[in-house]
From TrEMBL, chain A:
Name of this protein: 3-methyl-2-oxobutanoate dehydrogenase (2-methylpropanoyl-transferring)
Top-level EC class as recorded in UniProt: oxidoreductase
Organism per entry: Phellinidium pouzarii
Presence of keyword Amino-acid biosynthesis: no
Keyword entries, A-Z: Oxidoreductase
Cofactor: thiamine diphosphate
Documented EC number(s): 1.2.4.4
Biased composition (Polar residues): 26-35
Disordered, as annotated region: 26-50
Alphabetized Pfam families for the sequence: Transket_pyr (PF02779), Transketolase_C (PF02780)
Range of residues in the leader sequence: none
Cross-referenced PANTHER family: 2-OXOISOVALERATE DEHYDROGENASE SUBUNIT BETA, MITOCHONDRIAL, 2-OXOISOVALERATE DEHYDROGENASE SUBUNIT BETA-RELATED
Catalysis: reaction(s): N(6)-[(R)-lipoyl]-L-lysyl-[protein] + 3-methyl-2-oxobutanoate + H(+) = N(6)-[(R)-S(8)-2-methylpropanoyldihydrolipoyl]-L-lysyl-[protein] + CO2
Automatic annotation (TrEMBL), chain B:
PANTHER family assigned to the protein according to its UniProt record, in alphabetical order: 2-OXOISOVALERATE DEHYDROGENASE SUBUNIT ALPHA, MITOCHONDRIAL
CDD domains: TPP_E1_PDC_ADC_BCADC
TM segment ranges: none
Name this protein carries in UniProt: 2-oxoisovalerate dehydrogenase subunit alpha
């Protein structure tokens, strides 16, 4: 035991030395990967907020170069154009991007309908603004206040080959529909020997915390659906992602739960390609390449991670004593998982094999969360590569208490601490 | 497409208005109405009056009947328009049910199939209602509606193949329990065990029919459920949805008095299921479920309203579950054998209709004997065929979970590699590590099972015994080359 401890200490020292060397040699320049963005700014910089996040693509050029973007042009029969010249972008926040995606879906597919509680006047988060006026009340309509009904109704439409885009007003209220989603939608194809399916169903729902949502306007229930083989779960981090992933979700031949981080509806703004495009499901995206630690997340915490990395590289004075100088040059690979089920195991495995360290952070509670599943699989695949235990930075195993949110969800400082703990293990 | 849908909608509004005029609450002295948005049609009254009956005067909803227990038309009843061939076909389909049920019930008792549920006592409700539909109306059932899919032409062989889950089981590929039948050819959505989930789905199916220019005004969605299932939240949701988002959805409740052991008196305190229909603003009728002509007649009219007005309609068929709930249930644990025997003797839907047919000269004892012999033979042959066949290939265990590329956890390695190379061209980060990953990919779940089968399949008795029951004995899994 002592020997192992000593070895670990030695290892840590070596790693810290390695970081120090790397930091001096400024070798953290981006690789040739288009997917990546520049690493956090040099010392003397700032702490990123959503308004200044470098992960958001605020110019036309960067928007059109979003990795994985697949144009799905006008009538669907023309060849896919790879050239971006001549394409427009528009400044949009996340709810506008969601609306834009649904507008494309409704325009191209006569069978597509949008429904849920209060969607006709534009939705409580404005995601369906103007759609009823544009496409008619037969295609964009309110339902009675019944989540199990909304999900069941959508399954019925989908079983007839119609495109059903249902909304559950908050992910916190998806549980009455749990039965329809897990026992019906997910199993429709399998149990009928492939004769029937509910593949054209997409359920959109606002998720994650919003600062003052309390117990029932804050939850991240993606983990509860992990065992429901047959459905897909997708969570975007930004307007470009929301539009492309939602269009993929709507057109995917499987039922999809599409969870939209509600705090990002207005606060995340990007230039979004105006044309119809899709982003691939079951594909994680490397946002910042790195070699010392893999930081994996999805949805809102992507930006907390960005902040944590900025603090690590350039701590504000109050934190200076708490962040060892030797760690500041650590090269952390930030990955957005994007699809929770089925998740992109190859991308995560490749990253952890390279870095040897994994920190997973999500807003849902620790026990039974998605992080546990990923940690177990990575442990199996990367056992010999791991230099530290997989660290999960998650909400405590508690309901989301109203005035305690700051101390409940994993924010930048907790993520930073998790990164440091894992680096010096 | 949109404009014509709108037209349909305005017709409904007119129909709705008429309905309110026809059945509105008693007018107050001044005849004026409330102004609150939730009840703008409600008359204002100064009399304090509680009520507990949709019929008024504390009366219960009457039951519509056409032929009496001796097969004679009830006084004042109008016989539905049926000819001899149609009547005989209804009777033969009704008669097939107990003959098939008896064999499969016994087959289950011998352990040859895992489970069964019979339709004894409900033959008229099921076949009579199915006979009132167009052959391409969409049916969503609960589980005791075998008669509806047989009426549409599914063969006894196909039904029994599903119960055995053999390689001819197209409906479920051996994945679902017996009696969970389904077929797109017969517009019969595959049965699932969770009760009432099909009810709000039917509202969606109905809405899809209404939006489809080829089927609008021509088809409806028919949803069957028992009175027990009507206690589920999904019943409430389905009725609400089909009434507020008008859709041609025909709700058909089989009220057979029991949900397993729970008598209907412990299921609800109101006037059955029918009394709820009006609460949802849905045209409703209660019918004698043991009178196949009443069921046929009522369902025909229900369907007409459904399709013509594009709105929901509710039919409650009053019947009695002669059979045990299922092969896992002994109903004499909660009801007297004599009660059941009395029902069989006093009100048998089959003998009632047979008497009616004989009264018309459309049926005879000789024909009865011929038919029974013929159906028994068909059932026995189908049973022997089903029993002798293997299960589907073992690989079917892993299929049809997802459409499109299978996810990594269930996919075979070689397919996974192919998928990854072809679909993930955009992967450009860290190619060396990535390819190392591909080369060292872990054994995934299908492959893991194949590996275990190779290792233990011939030495571990419980697996060995099972493997031979599958077509190919699982070799399509174990002999795949990487």
């Amino acid at each position: 035991m002592a020997t192992i401890k000593q070895l670990r200490t030695l290892q840590s020292i070596n790693i810290i030395r390695a970081y120090a060397r790397r930091y001096q040699s400024t070798s953290t320049a981006p690789t040739t990967n288009d997917a990546s963005v520049e690493p956090p700014p040099p010392p003397g910089g700032y702490l990123p907020s959503l308004a200044s996040s470098r992960l958001l693509r605020t110019t036309r050029e960067r928007a059109l170069q979003a990795p994985g973007l697949k144009w799905t042009d006008e009538d669907g029969t023309s060849p896919v154009r790879e050239i971006v010249g001549g394409r427009d972008t528009r400044k949009m926040n996340l709810y506008q991007a969601v609306r834009d995606a649904m507008s494309h879906a409704l325009m191209k597919d006569d069978t597509a309908v949008v429904f849920g509680e209060d969607v006709a006047f534009g939705g409580v988060f404005r995601c369906s603004m103007g759609l009823a006026e544009e496409f008619g009340q037969e295609r964009v309509f309110n339902t009675p206040l019944t989540e199990q009904g909304i999900a069941g109704f959508g399954i019925g439409l989908a079983a007839m080959g119609h495109t059903a885009i249902a909304e559950i007003q908050f992910a916190d209220y998806i549980f009455p529909a749990f039965d329809q989603i897990v026992t019906e939608a997910a199993k429709y194809r399998y149990r009928s020997g492939g004769q029937f399916n509910a593949g054209k169903l997409t359920i959109r729902t606002p998720t994650m915390s919003v600062g003052h949502g309390g117990l029932y306007h804050s939850q991240s229930p993606e983990g509860y659906f992990l065992g429901a083989s047959g459905i897909k779960i997708v969570i975007p981090r930004s307007p470009i992602q929301a539009k492309g992933l939602l269009l993929s979700a709507i057109r995917d031949p499987n039922p999809v739960l599409f969870m939209e981080p509600k705090i990002l509806y207005r606060s995340s703004v990007e230039q979004v390609p105006a044309d119809d495009y899709e982003l691939p499901l079951s594909s994680a995206e490397v946002l910042i390449p790195g070699s010392d630690l893999t930081l994996l997340t999805w949805g809102t915490p992507v930006y907390h991670c960005e902040t944590a990395l900025a603090i690590l590289a350039d701590p504000p004075s109050a934190l200076l004593p708490l962040i060892p100088e030797s760690l500041r040059g650590a090269s952390v690979e930030l990955i957005d998982l994007r699809t929770i089920l089925p998740w992109d195991v190859a991308r995560i495995e490749a990253s952890v094999r390279k870095t040897g360290r994994l920190v997973i952070t999500h807003e849902a509670s620790m026990t039974g969360g998605v992080g546990g599943e990923i940690a177990a699989e990575v442990q199996k695949r990367c056992f010999l590569n791991l230099k530290a235990p997989v660290k999960r930075v998650a909400a405590w195993d508690l309901p989301v208490a109203l005035h305690y949110e700051k101390f409940h969800i994993p924010d930048a400082i907790r993520i930073l601490d998790g990164i440091m703990e894992t680096l010096i293990y | 497409m949109i404009s014509s849908t709108r037209r349909t909608f305005s017709v409904h509004r007119a129909a709705l208005h008429r309905r309110y005029l026809a059945t509105s609450a008693p007018q107050g002295p001044s005849g004026h109405h409330g102004l609150l948005p939730g009840s703008s049609q409600s008359a204002i009254t100064s009399k304090l009056h509680f009520f507990n009956s949709v019929m008024g005067n504390d009366e219960t909803i009457p039951t519509y009947r056409i032929i009496s227990k001796d097969g004679e038309p009830v006084e004042g009843a109008t016989l539905p328009n049926i000819d001899e061939g149609f009547g005989r076909r209804i009777y033969e389909t009704m008669s097939t049910l107990p003959l098939m049920d008896n064999v499969l019930y016994n087959v289950q008792r011998q352990g040859k199939i895992s489970f069964y549920m019979t339709s004894h006592g409900e033959e008229a409700s099921i076949v009579g209602s199915a006979a009132a539909l167009a052959p391409d109306d969409e049916i969503l059932g609960q589980y005791r509606e075998a008669g509806a899919i047989l009426w549409r032409g599914l063969t006894v062989e196909e039904y029994i193949a599903q119960c055995f889950g053999n390689d001819e089981d197209k409906a479920t590929k051996g994945r679902q329990m017996p009696v969970h039948i389904g077929s797109p050819k017969y517009h019969f959505h595959t049965i699932s065990s969770p009760l009432a989930t099909q009810i709000p789905q039917a509202a969606g199916v109905g809405y899809a029919l209404k939006r489809d220019p080829k089927r609008r005004g021509k088809n409806c969605a028919m949803v069957y459920f028992g009175e027990g299932a009507a206690s589920e939240g999904d019943f409430h949701a389905g009725m609400l949805l089909a009434s507020t988002i008008p859709s041609p959805t025909l709700f058909f409740a089989r009220n057979n008095g029991f949900a397993i052991s729970t008598p209907s008196s412990e299921q609800y305190h109101g006037d059955g299921i029918a009394s709820r229909g009006a609460g949802y603003g849905v045209d409703t009728v209660r019918v004698d479920g043991n009178d196949v002509l009443a069921v046929l007649s009522a369902t025909r009219e229900a369907r007409r309203r459904c399709v013509e007005y594009g709105r929901a309609v509710l039919v409650e068929a009053m019947t009695y579950r002669i059979s045990h709930h299922s092969t896992s249930d002994d109903s004499f644990a909660y009801r007297a054998r004599s009660e059941v025997d009395n029902w069989v003797k006093s009100d048998n839907p089959l003998s009632r209709f047979r008497l009616f047919l004989e009264g018309r000269g459309w049926w005879s004892s000789a024909e009865e004997e011929d038919m029974k012999t013929r159906i028994k033979k068909t059932v026995m042959q189908a049973f022997k065929r089903a029993e002798s066949r293997k299960r589907p290939e073992l690989k079917e265990l892993f299929r049809d979970v997802y459409a499109g590329p299978e996810p990594w956890n269930i996919v075979r390695n070689d397919a996974f590699r192919h998928f990854y190379y072809s679909k993930h061209r955009f992967i450009n980060a860290f190619p060396s590590e990535f390819f190392a990953t591909i080369a060292n990919i872990q054994t995934e779940q299908r492959e893991e099972l194949a590996t275990l089968l190779k290792k233990y399949g011939q030495v571990w008795e419980p697996w060995k015994r099972e493997l031979v029951k599958f077509k190919g004995s699982g070799q399509e899994l174990t002999q795949v080359k990487k």
